Each structure stands twice: as C-alpha cells, then as structure tokens.
Amino acid sequence: MNVLLMAYGTPYTPEEIEPYYTDIRRGRRPSEELIKELEERYAAIGKSPLNEITLVQAIRLQALLNLEAPVYPKRLLGPFGPRTPQGPARVYVGTKHWHPSIGEALAAMHEDGVRRAVAIVAAPHYSLRSVAEYQEKVDQALKALPEPIEVVWVQSYEAHPGLIAAYARRLEEAIWRLREPRKAAYVFTAHSIPLAAVERGDPYPRQVERTAELIAKRLALPRYSVAYQSAGRTPEPWLGPDINEHLRALREEGFEEVVVQAVGFPADHLEVYYDLDLEAQATAQEVGLRLLRARSLNADLDYIQVLKDLVEAAWLK
Predict the structure, then answer these.
(1) C-beta of residue 266 within 8 angstroms of C-beta of residue 7
(2) What is the reported pLDDT for 95?
C-alpha cells in the first residue's frame, strides 16, 4: 500500500516567508505590506509546527498501517540484512505550498516503483479552494512523470465516526474547565472560502456544519454555532460569520463563556495560533468573554487511526 499524505506546508525559516507567500498567490509576489503582515504574524506566534506535525503524522500512519501487515509478507530467498524493510505500506509527504512539494513526493514515489497510491489531505472537508487545488497539483505532477501512477482519492471525511469521537474527546476536556457548561456557547470554526465558490455549489459549508452537528449531538451541547476564520486578504467577499464578529454577537446575547474548536484544522499552525489564540482571544477579552480553545488533533493516535481507516478503505476500491 502506498499513501500520499498532503498538507498545506509552512516556511521553515523567516527568509522563506516571501517565496512561500508568492507560491500561495500562484507566482504573484505579494505587496511589501502583505509580506510584512505575514512576517509579523509568524513572529507573534514564534513558530508554526505544521511541518513537524505532518512528518509525525506520516511516520505514525506508516507504522500503524504496517503494524497489521501479514506475518509472512514475502518469502525470503536468503539471509536478511541488518536493516529492517519499511514494510508493505509506505507513506510519502507532499505539501501544497512548500517543501517537500507534491511534485517532489510523486517523483520520489515514481523512483521507488510506485504505480498505485491513495491520496489524502490532512483536512476533513472538501472545497474547491482546498482539496480540489491539491488534486490539480497532483494531476500536474503526474503529467511530468515518465510512467503513470494510479491515484485513488479520499476526498473528504467530515462525518467519520473516529474523527467525530476525537474532536468530541478534546472538546470535553475544554468543557471540564468551564464554570457553567450549560450556559456556555460552543463555536466550531473552519477556514473561510470566497463566497463565489459557495455560490458555485461548493459543498464545504455543508460539510463543516455536518461535522459540528455530529460533535454537538454526541456531547448534547445546549448551544452551538459555526463561524469562519482566516479569510484571505482579497477584495472579494468571504464566507462568514467571521469568528471575531461572532464572538461580539455572542457577548451581546449575554454569554460569558465560549469554547472554540477548530474542526477545519486537524493540526496546529499559524492560523490556529494567531487567528484563535491571539486575535480571537484578544477580541474575547475586549468584550468580556472567557474563551477556551479545544486542543487540536495533531498527530495523536486517535486521528492517525482515522487516516488509516480511510486509506485502507480507498486502497481496496
């Protein structure tokens, strides 16, 4: 079994921020103002752990897939060497906007003789602005290979029972810290997308709402809502409500405590740390709300088990 695990990617050093941002904008260099703003955000959080988390996700996913390998996967024709083989399952990492890139990952797969693979993005919801763009990059990279690789996609997994249980488990941890859980507001967030994509029938908002609904039902939450964060710096309208505006509205309704869970982001990264832990927290303090954030899934084994279930099911198709 071969797996291409994909994530957004993030710069490793401050010097990489400008070319990274340029890649996000499809080769168009951002203005000095936008570059400075992004540099300041990275400086404010200290370090985005996304690359490190993605690597550990891949290592653990590969280990978990191989843990259930057949006892005798291949007949030995002689003494085996001191190195243990990787096993029948191999996981490759490709990032959308940095290194290792999706093209680099597929080139490595081809060099290793891979001819069939499962592709999965470490994000539960399909969008024309997320998973569809990963698919576009994979298609472009495949065309550059001298021989084809068959790619089977996991497009979304917003309602996977293991995912819902993992999110609910972490939300319960935050609920335990509340003074009055039955009087608190619960907000699930995801990355905003342009409204134009929604108007074209993008299923993304419905999938985000489905994830939120299932978590809320599992925990019998008295009040929950969905808000969006991290809208792009473009003049076009983006999907809302914005998390900061939503927090102000909740305070006006009389809420004193709120728990936020970023269900659109399995891993901690810039937009979790800055947009929620700094910006949204500042908004909450400004209006007199006590805000708690449920911790992310990251590379915890309950999330890796979800990825394993998904890639195994796709591989057998």
Answers:
(1) no
(2) 94
Query: Peptide bond preceding 100: is omega within 30 degrees of 0, i.e. cis?
Result: yes
pLDDT score, position 68:
76
CA distances from residue 35 to 11, 93, 156 in whole angstroms, order as listed:
13, 27, 32
Sign for the CA dihedral angle at 213, 217, 221, 222 comes to positive
What is the C-alpha to C-alpha distance for residues 132 and 125, in angstroms, rounded to an integer? 11
Structural domains of the chain, ranges and CATH numbers in brackets: 2-157+301-315 (3.40.50.1400), 161-293 (3.40.50.1400)
d(CA 267, CA 103): 22
CA distance 242 to 165: 26
pLDDT at 73 over 70: no
pLDDT (tens digit, 9 = 90+) per residue, 18-40? Answer: 999 999 998 999 999 999 999 99
Beta-bridge mates of residue 152: 118
Cis peptide leading into residue 241 (ω within 30°): yes
CA distance 66 to 68: 5
- pTM for the whole thing? 0.93
